[in-house]
Structures are given as structure tokens and as C-alpha cells.
Specification:
The protein is mostly helical. It is built from 14 helices and no strands.
Length: about 325
């Protein structure tokens, strides 16, 4: 009797060990996996389809898969974060922010990428309002973005040093964009050139300290911000000397943009253009700025903060 019991226990132990081993070595999409753990198999299928459509740019289809995944795991912070990214790509801003906020709370307020992604959305909203000549409301969104970045930085402070430094550098690019937006809003709404100068200088310092990330898009935006400062001094203040100083600053920063684009082949290709396309575009913009500074383009009404191509992919840096 004891011998039979020992055999049974041993058989059960071997079967359990085999089950564990198979779960470790069998690929998730194997028919064997469907037998071993059918629920996990179906979940993995959904996740695979969600990510495949997301990576293919089919956000509407990806959203349906993520909705199914969230029904199974409503407390999964990473799923809510990815849904937030999908919603932001679909232009569903309010829904995206709600998903990012949910992800942040479910993570115990440790997923700093979530509030940083909301900051990226607010920056885009602020820039859209600047282009619509509404600097007052634009400033509100840049201030909101700044608050979100504070929360993001606080959330990641306990991470390992190397990871912490890398994430903060990513956040700094958004912080620099916030500084540009705040400066433009103050300049165009309340005529505060002093605030604009301070904010633009802070942005330039941030970008220079993040050289490893080669912020060519950010430098380009800063160049146009300095150009706007030059226009205000020249046309509103009638101070040609100050205007000339900021025109020169605009030119110098555009040169930094071209240099950063030249160094960043991988990033350029990610945005769908060759290096030469970026460099050619920036050369043309620099030429146009210099022509305007000489008084050769008095009829053109410049946009205060032109958005670079495919700015909507800013959130990609947090994935």
C-alpha cells in the first residue's frame, strides 16, 4: 500500500514538473500552449494582435484588441498606458489622458512615463493654440505640461541611476519645449520679452545638456522662437539693435539644429526622411530667416512655433 502511494505521489510530482517545464519552454503560439493554459494562450494571442496592429500603424484595430485585453486585466497599468498611446494617435485626446492617468495610479504613481506622455499632449495643444493666435490659452497648457513633468520626474527618482538618468534626459526634451511655449505665450500675450528671453535661454541650456539625444527638432523650434523675439523687438519695440541680436541667436540655434540632424541618422530615418531632407529643409528655413532679417520678406506673417513633421510621434520616446 505504501509502495503504491509512493508511486502515485512520484507520478504526480513528475507530471507537475513536466507541466512547469513545458510552460517555460513551449512558445506562446504553440498548439501545445493552448492545451497547457488555454486562457493564457488566448490572452497572448490578443496581445500579439494588439501590438502587431499598433506597430503597423493600424491604431483603430489595435484599440479594439486593447479593449479586450483590458476587460481581462483591468488593473494592468502597462495595458492602460499602451491604450493611452493608441488613443493619442487616434486624436482622442481626453480618452488618452484618462488612460495615462489610470496607468499612473495603478502603477502606484511610479510609471513616470505616463504623466510625461500627458505633458507631450499638452505641449501639442499649446502649440496648436499659438498657431491660432491664442497665446493666453496656450500658456495654460504649457503650465499644465510643466506640472505633469514635475510629477514624472518625482515618480522615477527611485529607479536605478543609469535608468533614472536616461529617463530624465528624455523628459528634459519635453521640458525644453515647455520653456519655449511659456516664453512665446508670455511674449505674445503679455508683451513680456524678459520672460521670453529667460525661458528660451533655459530651453537652450536643457537641449545642450541632452546632446546625447541630438535634439534637432527642439533646436529648430527654439530657432523660430528667437526669430519671433527678434520680430517683436524690431516691429513693436523699434529696437533694431536688440532685434539684430536675436536674429543672430535664431541663426545660431538653427545651425545647432542642422548639426544635430547631421549626427542623428537613426532618429532621422525613424521620422521617415533621409538626413539630407532634414538638412535641406533646415537650410531653406535658415535662408528664409536671414532674408526676413534683412527686410526682404516684409509681407510674410510668420507662425510663432511651427511644429516639426510628425510631432505626434513624440510619445514614442516613452514606449
Amino acid at each position: 500500500m505504501k509502495k503504491s502511494a509512493t508511486i502515485i505521489v512520484g507520478t504526480i510530482g513528475i507530471a507537475f514538473a513536466l507541466f512547469v517545464i513545458l510552460n517555460l519552454v513551449v512558445p506562446w503560439n504553440s498548439p501545445v500552449r493552448m492545451i497547457l493554459s488555454p486562457r493564457q494562450y488566448r490572452y497572448n494571442q490578443l496581445l500579439h494582435n494588439a501590438m502587431a496592429n499598433y506597430q503597423a500603424g493600424k491604431m483603430d484595430i489595435a484599440a479594439t484588441y486593447f479593449e479586450k485585453l483590458l476587460k481581462q486585466k483591468p488593473e494592468d497599468a502597462k495595458l492602460h498606458y499602451r491604450m493611452g498611446v493608441v488613443k493619442s494617435r487616434l486624436g482622442e485626446t481626453d480618452e488618452a489622458i484618462a488612460e495615462f492617468d489610470k496607468a499612473f495610479e495603478l502603477s502606484g504613481r511610479e510609471m513616470g512615463e505616463a504623466p510625461a506622455s500627458v505633458a507631450a499632449i499638452h505641449i501639442q495643444q499649446g502649440e496648436d493654440l499659438l498657431k491660432k493666435d491664442n497665446p493666453r490659452d496656450a500658456g495654460t497648457f504649457f503650465d499644465r505640461a510643466n506640472e505633469r513633468l514635475d510629477a514624472a520626474s518625482e515618480a522615477v527618482k527611485n529607479r536605478e541611476t543609469e535608468e533614472w538618468n536616461a529617463v530624465l534626459k528624455e523628459f528634459s526634451l519635453l521640458r525644453g519645449q515647455v520653456f519655449i511655449g511659456q516664453g512665446l505665450s508670455a511674449l505674445l500675450y503679455s508683451d513680456r520679452a524678459d520672460v521670453a528671453v529667460e525661458r528660451f535661454s533655459a530651453a537652450e541650456s536643457v537641449f545642450k545638456n541632452a546632446e546625447a539625444l541630438k535634439p534637432f527638432r527642439e533646436y529648430r523650434k527654439l530657432s523660430h522662437a528667437y526669430a519671433e523675439l527678434a520680430r517683436v523687438h524690431g516691429k513693436s519695440y523699434m529696437d533694431e539693435q536688440a532685434a539684430r541680436k536675436y536674429w543672430e541667436k535664431s541663426f545660431a540655434v538653427m545651425e545647432l539644429a542642422m548639426a544635430a540632424a547631421h549626427m542623428d541618422k537613426k532618429h532621422a530615418l525613424k521620422f521617415g526622411d533621409s538626413l539630407e531632407v532634414f538638412r535641406s529643409k533646415y537650410r531653406k528655413e535658415l535662408k528664409a530667416l536671414k532674408k526676413e532679417a534683412r527686410g526682404g520678406d516684409k509681407t510674410k506673417k510668420p507662425a510663432p512655433a511651427p511644429a516639426p513633421e510628425k510631432l505626434d510621434s513624440a510619445i514614442e520616446i516613452f514606449e
